[in-house]
Write a structure and sequence with these properties.
Largest sheet: 4 strands, parallel
Shape: globular
Bound molecules: zinc ion
CATH architecture of the domain at 1-106 and 232-254: 3-Layer(aba) Sandwich
CATH class of the domain at 1-106 and 232-254: Alpha Beta
CATH superfamily of the domain at 1-106 and 232-254: HUPs
Radius of gyration: 20 Å
Number of helices: 9
Strand content: 15-25%
Amino acid sequence: MGNKGNYYLTTAIAYTSGKPHIGNSYEIVMADAICRFKRQQGYDVRFQTGTDEHGQKNEEKANALGITPKEFVDKIAGIIKGICVSLNVSYDRFIRTTDEDHEKQVQKIFKKMYDKGDIYKGSYEGMYCTPCESFWTESQLVNGKCPDCGREVKPAKEEAYFFKMSKYADRLIEYINTHPEFIQPVSRKNEMMNNFLLPGLKDLCVSRTSFKWGIPVTFDEKHVVYVWLDALTNYITGIGYDADGNSSDMYKKY
Ligand SMILES: [Zn+2]
């Protein structure tokens, strides 16, 4: 069988805040089946899975156990990787968002977006619960109190970086409308359009200063990169994307 082309498949990466559940196994087995089938058909397949390891929840869990966040995520990532091995999953890379190559690229991506004007420094305003170190919106409050601990909250302001998501709304709507295959099934496409894009995108807060367990912003080290911006780039960092234009041959290939 000749090479039918390149095929890159990823799973969502599992969040390490707790023990894995059956859903993690379900997704990885489905993805593995697809990859094995594609290889059999003659595709050049690259298959990536892994773990999403930063963020406040992991830091809190580690604190509660009296260990470092790294010790905590090492343990959970080990269990998740162990499941992949015992299910004989044919992945090419098991990426962890604490891997050095990933962390370095996230820092470069954040800086590049800042340099290009897509990320700006502003401030985040909301109702703040001091013991929980959490911001809440008015609508999240329960009887005017913190929804997690029930204590009093007070209005507060925190310096943060924001991503200009609003700038991309028109381009996304146009692309999704002209590429019906881009989001499948159609019910998910409608959900994305009707609930997020058409009502208008708000700029997204992409840094945190209230905890430490994240990737530091290189040019402003009291900030760590918001975990979603960090984690979602794994699909490109894991195959060698480089923000300075020196991406690997593997990245270009897939
Ligand atoms: Zn609270």
